[in-house]
UniProtKB/TrEMBL annotation:
This is D-aminoacylase. InterPro entries: Amidohydro_3, D-aminoacylase_insert_dom_sf, Metal-dep_hydrolase_composite, Metal_Hydrolase, Metallo-dep_Hydrolases_sf. It comes from the Bacteria. PANTHER family: COLLAPSIN RESPONSE MEDIATOR PROTEIN (PTHR11647:SF1), HYDRANTOINASE/DIHYDROPYRIMIDINASE FAMILY MEMBER (PTHR11647). SUPFAM superfamilies: Composite domain of metallo-dependent hydrolases, Metallo-dependent hydrolases. It comes from Streptomyces alboniger.
Length: 539
């Protein structure tokens, strides 16, 4: 054996009872499991390493079903934000906006559109234009050594639409739809696991259901899944969920609901309504899963709050509208009175919008304060403050939106098709703590402290369930022959270190993390190992 882990409490990912065992690892895979009391021989002595787990819990590596590490994996070889949590695989390309497939024009536009999520990319060598090229870039990153953790990719529908017809708010022509279908088919054949949408983000939100269904048919034909950030998490949230369920049924495409929350005052206590909708669809044969993060606030960009009509034409057009007093007043009216579709149909409450990051150095003092607080300090209306911030930061500001409900969070995470996703945006001085804390938060607060789920159930939500959605035949369980993507943690002490005040603090109680049998975290410290690679769709 290359490695023998002795005396571990194995939580194998099935949701079943844990057991004591020794684990033997050879050539990156679990080669032997010797349970306490077994009469057969224990794993042979290790050639390289023997680790006495001393009763630490040993689980499959955690799978982050909703990550925004598209450039972070290329930028930061350590990527400790995720490695320290026990994450061994991230699903990127989320919310309908990412960096492949593109041409030169589309790449320049998408870089500007999601600067708040990933930075402007000025430190990245964008050598690729296709999905396959991007996945190859992950495999050969950092001098050819690879990336910190594994990554799977979703084709971003908004980027595909941007590529085929720009930022126009109109139906696609038959030729444009054929072009989009070709781009999706090409990306799937090159290894993407599915397609994402951001249906409150421009330009993806301009697609109607027939257009989305046509693309989902291509995804289904390649055995992928559809992952929508749907049209509303506020007013009309249930209708938006139902729309996605019906769309997936029409296209015969598996459905994974991104960050499936019920937010804003209109949805307080309404998680049971969502779960009833899903249970009915599941009972009628629908293939549905979902992910959530274990926090109440959301996180996005400030520009995402604007009405969709203000986004037509792309970033330069948005800035021009903001600079025009008459158009800016229309935007304010939609935000504060009507309830813009960018803000999920709910009139915006400026005291819930906290600035978490600003690109312009002169705006650093805004971070950590709400728009209402900033406006009060200046003696002006909140929209005046927000408008100035959008213009001065060239749409790059990120926000925390404090609109969630704890009872909804707990109810949804109990559901049998639930998985974990951080939705972690790593940009900004004060990012959402979920980027650094989602998985220990599940294990520590919600399993150990609150008992919302048992520890064994929690691990299943974070491992085998997402692996099944991704159709990964050798990940997500502690079984012989499976890849040795493993996490060792202390169930009594594991906890998220990150807080809203100190969001980049690393977790405690997760001393060891392995990918392909190689330590990426050992004794609580990041090693120099780069064992991550692009995980391509299983044919």
């Amino acid at each position: 054996m290359d490695l023998v882990i002795q005396d571990a409490r194995v939580i194998d990912g099935t949701g079943g009872a844990s057991y004591r065992a020794d684990i033997g690892v050879q050539e990156g895979r679990i080669a032997a499991i010797h349970r306490e009391g077994d009469t057969g021989p224990r794993p042979a002595a290790a050639r390289r390493h023997t680790l006495d787990a001393q009763g630490l819990a040993l689980a499959p590596g955690f799978i982050d079903m909703h990550a925004h590490s598209d450039l972070a994996l290329l930028r930061d070889p350590e990527h400790t934000a995720k490695a320290a949590q026990g994450v061994t695989l991230e699903v990127i390309g989320q919310d309908g906006l990412s960096y492949a497939p593109v041409d030169d024009r589309t790449l320049a536009q998408v870089r500007r559109a999601i600067t708040g999520w990933n930075g402007d990319g000025s430190d990245i060598d964008f050598t690729w234009r296709t999905v396959g090229g991007y996945l190859d870039a992950l495999d050969t990153a950092h001098g050819g050594h690879g990336i910190a953790v594994n990554a799977a990719y979703l084709i971003p529908q908004g980027t595909v639409r941007m590529y085929a017809l720009g930022w126009d708010d109109r139906p696609a022509t038959p030729a444009e739809l054929d072009r989009m279908r070709h781009l999706v088919a090409e990306g799937m054949s090159e290894g993407a696991v599915g397609m994402s949408s951001g249906l409150t983000y421009t330009p993806g939100m301009y697609a109607d259901d027939s257009e989305l269904a046509a693309l989902c048919e291509v995804v289904a034909a390649h055995k992928g899944y559809y992952c929508p950030h749907h049209r509303s998490y506020g007013a009309g949230a249930l209708q938006a969920y139902e729309e996605m369920v019906n769309l997936a049924r029409t296209a015969r495409c598996p459905l994974h609901l991104a960050h499936a929350t019920m937010n804003f005052g209109v949805n307080k206590g309404r998680a049971p309504d969502l779960l009833a909708l899903l249970d009915d669809a599941l009972a009628h044969g629908a293939d549905i899963t979902l992910d959530t993060y274990p926090y109440t606030p959301g996180c996005t960009t400030l520009v995402a709050m604007l009405p969709s009509w203000a986004g037509e034409g792309g970033p330069d057009a948005i800035l021009a509208r903001l600079r025009d007093d008459g158009t800016a007043e229309r935007i304010r009216h939609h935000l504060e009175v009507v309830g813009s579709d960018g803000c999920h149909g709910v009139p915006i409450e400026w005291d819930t919008i906290e600035i978490s990051g600003a690109l312009a150095p002169g705006l650093a003092s805004c971070v950590g304060r709400t728009i209402q607080e900033l406006a009060d300090a200046r003696g002006e209306a909140p929209w005046t403050t927000a408008r100035r911030l959008l213009i001065d930061d060239r749409l790059g500001s990120t926000i925390l939106q404090h609109v969630g409900h704890e009872e909804n969070v707990r109810a949804i995470m109990r559901h049998r098709v639930h998985t974990g996703g951080s939705d972690g945006i790593l940009q900004g001085v004060k990012p959402h703590p979920r980027a650094y804390g989602t998985f220990p938060q599940y294990l520590g607060r919600y399993a150990r402290e609150l008992g919302v789920l048992s520890l064994e159930e929690t691990v299943a939500h974070l491992t085998s369930r997402p692996a099944a959605r991704l159709r990964l035949p050798d990940r997500g369980l502690v079984r012989e022959g499976y890849r040795a993507d493993l996490v060792l943690f202390d169930p009594e002490t594991v906890a998220a270190g990150s807080t809203f005040e100190a969001p980049r603090t690393l977790p405690v109680g997760i001393p060891h993390v392995l990918i392909d049998g190689r330590f990426v975290m050992r004794d609580g410290r990041r090693t120099d190992t780069l064992a991550g690679r692009a995980v391509r769709r299983t044919p």
